[in-house]
Amino acid sequence: MARPRLSYLSEEDRRFIHEQTVFVLEEVGVGYNTPAAIDLVEEAGAEVDREHLRAKLPWELIERCLATCPRQVLLAGRGPASDVVLGDGSLTFCSDGTGTYLYDDETGVRSEGTAADLRRVMRLLDALPEVDYAWPSLSARDLHPLTAGLEIEAISLACFSRHLQDEVREPAHVGPLLEILEAVAGGSLWDRPIFSTVNCTIAPLQHEREMTEATMELVKSGVPVLILPMPLAGTTAPLTVLGTCIVNMAELLSAVVLFQLAQPGCALISGVGAAAADMRTGGYLCGAPEVGLMNVICIEMSRYYGLPVTGSAVTSDAKASDPQAGAEGMLTGLAGALAGVDSLIAVGLLDGAESVSLAKVVLDCDVVGMIERFVRDEPVDATRALTADIAAVGVGGHFLARRSTRQFRRAGEFWQPRVLQRRPFESCGGRSLVREAADRARELLESHEVPPLAEDAVQAIDAVIAGYASQVGAPAGRVPWREAL
Asked: Are 313 and 332 in contact (CB under 8 A)?
């Protein structure tokens, strides 16, 4: 069985990166920024500075915590048919998350995302089989800030029927969110983890207090965690690919220690959010070739530590769905896939992950399809060599009428695009690819029906959000998430 693979680091290189990462954790340390974390790591043997809420982590402690991490992580959908398992050898894809703007592919105008926009985006993602699970791609800015965190999850759960992954930024949201999730799952998240949380560390070498405290509570209820460091080379990380990767891995391992101490055996996923800073503006660059290299290094190091890993790819710095978006997306996506990543955050965003484009969502699914085909396992044996057919056709013959041609065509030997243009020149009628992708998005939104939530789950969500709104003093009345039904 053959599969394309990229091996970038030698064994000596991996040992060097490991030694430098351990040096940072043992000698420099990390800022956990919450007494709850300091209590845990001190009891486990770390050297702590309580005044500054920092800790230095010995390798023995890190190694002990790595040993309790599961090698496979279930990301459950509403039903078993849409379950995803990271670490089982498959390659899966997730939508990119929390863009600020919705980009209009026809006018070139972008506007702040709304709850209605979020519904459209999540319904489109649900209609696309290439999206295995989703991080809500748009932040709804018209929701009340006190309840938006819960309403965004409710909207997404109603409009997307597969596994949902998102940040939980406030400890106060943990209790009501767990009530919502358990109502939709129909039981404990230990059995069916239909939601996973994204825990973003704060470069360099820090943890954000509220998100960290929320995650420490979520792991106790069976919620898997994607640990996603996001150091930027040149600003919050050194201006080298390697130095940025060491910051990424140090932050990652510091989070592994904390969450394994909070809940031994909890499901953790190594995330690669390392990117480059635009040195003229300080902006976030996610489509640069150096980002592909950062992903390759951190993916290989995650495997060195035995962790399932999610990379960042296909998102672009382009300002529209254009050749730049395609080139950057394919470069970073193929780099991560060839490095052996388990999953890629890959669909929908452009302009440094600030804007969602519906056309790009559709086009990215073709990019994802090409990547999946390229790295697919292929037998190297007589069933594929077809030397008997070659002999039967002989010199100057033709293979079109052979049974094997029909069989392999139907079996998907050659990948077929959904929107990329392969038709004759005359049949395209001068239409742009972006226009065709935007039209495809509209067609899917008009025709696709998301499997509805159970009525008792809807009522439970209503009660939870209304109760939380009353508790925090948010306006009573209409519950905007209901419009998703």
From this structure: yes
